[in-house]
User: What shape does this take?
Amino acid sequence: MTFFPPAWRLGVVQEVAPPGVLDLGPGYPGPDLQPVGLVRHAYARALEEFGSAALAYGDNAGALPLREALARRAHLPDAGRVVLTAGTSQALHLLGTTLAAPGRTVVTDRLGYDYGRAILTSCGLRLAHVPADADGMDPGALDDALAARDTAFVYLNPTFHNPTGQVVPERRRREILEVTTRRGVLVVEDDAYAELGLSAAAFPPPLAELDPDGVIRLGTFSKTIGPGLRLGWLTAGPAVVTRLLSHGLFHSGGSLNHLASLAVATMITDGEYDRHLDRVRDELRVRRDALLGALGDLDVTTPHGGFFLWLRFGPEQREEELVAAAAAGGVRVAAGSRFGAGQAPRIRLSYSLNRPAELASAGHAIHTAWARSGLLHERVSS
Ligand SMILES: Cc1ncc(COP(=O)(O)O)c(C=O)c1O
Assistant: This one.
């Protein structure tokens, strides 16, 4: 049943499902979406082109070829606003330790990326949660939250949100930025899924495009190439860039992932990265539809990008029972409460890791398991 190569084993990778279990939990690309051949070639190219400079301490802000390529992709005038990171996780840690003293508050959505929140609380920061409606964070409630406390920054994930898949429309983006600008508070825009839009429709501009000095935008290659690269980037205004780069970590070690940066720069400049992205998006679309098709009449909105389906259940249903019944049917799912409490039961399913055939059988298996356990009642809408 498994299609994971033998090297995907504990001690090598962070997590592997036990044999026979279809894992719809993790949000990262599966083995067949990771372009091992392209990456091998890119590392060889980087070493040919840069030689020993690829093995030196890298420029503190990150290798210029990659920063320039990323600046062009983000329509920035130059690379001065781009800092390379060891992924979004490290960027959040950097922001949580550089822009905020322990005890200060980060304002965020009630629902959000669980491990991102854990990084911020590990930095000694408190989280304050603001309610959202179908368009995203409520600007009035955000204003109240910022008036009530000394906020280090606002942390948002407005495009293909993890876990809901929601995209905040442009109007709401502008309303949120009106509040943060008036209150003088920085926004951290986690845009991990930005390049994984799955429909032809135009998506709203990033918050950082609407307010380049007031928004720090985080990008990552984890979702498009593979998380093992540990490579990402942030864009920010010049004052924030200077402040971040004053961190001793850069003075001591230079850029956090120099050789990977040069390798990925070659993938972008020779067009391989964009061709790969097209393939990934095509495949994700097929995967999303295979899983959706197998879920029958369950209450779920089709996401227009990212990796996740967010299933809604009525208040009479119990999340633990849904998770347990799915496990008994051989499928691992993520409990919605992992991403924020105080809601009717929700389940997150990831379609990034498995192939369409596995996703279809996993979808049928959970639907059958839930129906047999009497867990499927009236469809709810919210
Ligand atoms: C919203 C969001 N941000 C960040 C990350 C982690 O990114 P990275 O691998 O670059 O640390 C994830 C991964 O699940 C995510 O969903």
Q: What stands out?
A: The chain has two domains: 22-33+273-373, 39-270.
